[in-house]
Design goal:
mainly alpha, about 0% strand, 2 strands, two-stranded antiparallel ribbon, 13 helices, about 325 residues
Length: about 325
């Protein structure tokens, strides 16, 4: 059984509602009271599964059940998963497979080889090609390929951050004309972890756009300038804290005061640079000031992360001349 304390918080960490004694989830916003403990147990269980210790993994999953409402979807998933572990599963793949198990073309690509090999093997590769084909037809193959790779790097930012935390995730799927997404299991994951994973995508996107901006400054090639602006612009719009955008989960982990800070910074950047995309981020944060999902305690690390990413993207749009998204 879990060695975590069974002491129940007096107030919900998300909406601040006073919780009844023994509550396992907030009756108002449905936030799990023991989400932090469950995240640690789930990560440990997945690690044990990866090393073939199915009995130990089973015990960790079972330890999550007292922390969950009995009829919740998470509890049902755990019960089903535990039954699967009891039946036994195939041995896990070696943690350090022989390099010769990969094709020679993948070996020549070094660290990128396994990623591209996974794209080839799974359906994400075909969605990548469809996405690329759409933008090739509209703006030519060079911009189409560059733009699709920028989206891939953004999604790989999410994917890598998820995997390094020991959480399961699938390779990115592309939706032509809309964007892309990474499917992952967020059961029991804390708001702070979700926020960090959400911001990892725009951070990776900033890095990719920065490389394009550097190539533009060195070569003067308008293609690199267009890729730098379009990449930075799209990553900035992803920071809008609404709907399914990355900024939504990031905003859930910061207090109202911190939301106000992000709003002011975004508005100032939009005014100074004349880039209306930051005004949209500011407007979204303004709306979130009036929602009831802000945690009572500040989260300085996530707030600083958010401000740093939005400022870094603004610097690219300031450095590369143009207006709006920058499509050629």
């Amino acid at each position: 059984m879990s060695s975590f304390s069974s002491k129940v918080a007096q107030n919900c960490s998300r909406c601040s509602l006073e919780l009844p004694t023994g509550a396992l989830e907030c009756p108002q916003c449905r936030t799990l009271v023991h989400s932090d403990q469950m995240e640690q147990l789930a990560a440990h269980a997945r690690s044990l599964e990866a090393h073939g210790d199915f009995q130990g993994a089973r015990e960790r999953w079972l330890a999550c059940l007292p922390l969950l409402p009995a009829q919740s979807a998470q509890a049902e998933w755990i019960r089903t998963h535990v039954r699967d572990l009891e039946k036994g599963t195939p041995p896990p793949q070696p943690t350090n497979p022989n390099a010769h198990s990969m094709p020679q073309w993948a070996q020549r690509l070094g660290p990128l080889g396994p990623i591209l090999l996974a794209l080839v093997k799974f359906k994400s590769f075909f969605s990548f090609l469809t996405f690329f084909g759409l933008y090739w037809a509209r703006w030519g193959w060079k911009f189409g390929l560059g733009f699709t790779v920028l989206i891939l790097i953004h999604e790989m930012g999410h994917f890598i951050d998820i995997k390094r935390r020991g959480l399961p995730a699938e390779m990115p799927m592309f939706l032509p004309g809309l964007g892309a997404y990474v499917k992952w299991n967020a059961m029991g994951v804390s708001l702070e972890t979700r926020a960090a994973i959400s911001l990892a995508g725009p951070l990776a996107g900033w890095f990719a756009s920065g490389i394009c901006a550097l190539l533009w400054s060195q070569t003067g090639d308008g293609l690199w300038g267009a890729l730098a602006r379009s990449g930075a612009w799209l990553n900035a719009i992803n920071l809008v804290p609404l709907w399914i955008l990355d900024g939504n989960d990031a905003a859930k982990a910061i207090s109202k005061l911190e939301r106000a800070v992000v709003m002011v910074v975004s508005a100032a950047l939009g005014y100074a640079l004349g880039e209306w995309v930051f005004a949209i981020v500011a407007l979204g944060m303004g709306i979130r000031l009036f929602t009831r999902d802000a945690p009572p305690e500040p989260n300085n690390s996530i707030a600083a992360y958010f401000v740093a990413v939005v400022t870094a993207l603004a610097m690219i749009l300031w450095r590369v001349p143009g207006h709006g998204i920058g499509l050629p």
